[in-house]
Amino acid sequence: MKISSHAVARMLGAWQQGPGPAHQRLSDKLRLLILDGRLSLGAALPSERDLATVLGTSRTTVGTAFRTLVEGGYLATRARTRATVRLPGDTAADAPAGTDTETIDLSFAAPSAPVEVLHAAFATALEQLPRHFERHGYDRYGIAELREAVARWYRRRGLPTGPDQILITSGAQHALALLTRVLLSPRDQVLIDHPTYPHAITTFTQARARLLPVAVTCSGWDAEQLRAVGRSADLAYLIPDFHNPTGMCMSTSVRERLGLACPTIVDETMADLALDAPAPEPFALHMPAAVSIGSVSKSIWGGLRIGWIRARPPLLERVERSRPTTDLGTPVVEQLATAALLNEDLTGRPETLHRLRGRRDALRQALAEHLPDVHAPRPPGGITLWATFPGPISSRLAAVAPDHGVTIAAGPRFGIGGAFERNIRLPYTLPPDQLARAVRRLARAEQALARGATGTHVPAPIA
Ligand SMILES: Cc1ncc(COP(=O)(O)O)c(C=O)c1O
Question: How far is ligand 1, taken at its centre, from the CA of residue 173, in Å?
Answer without folding.
Answer: 6
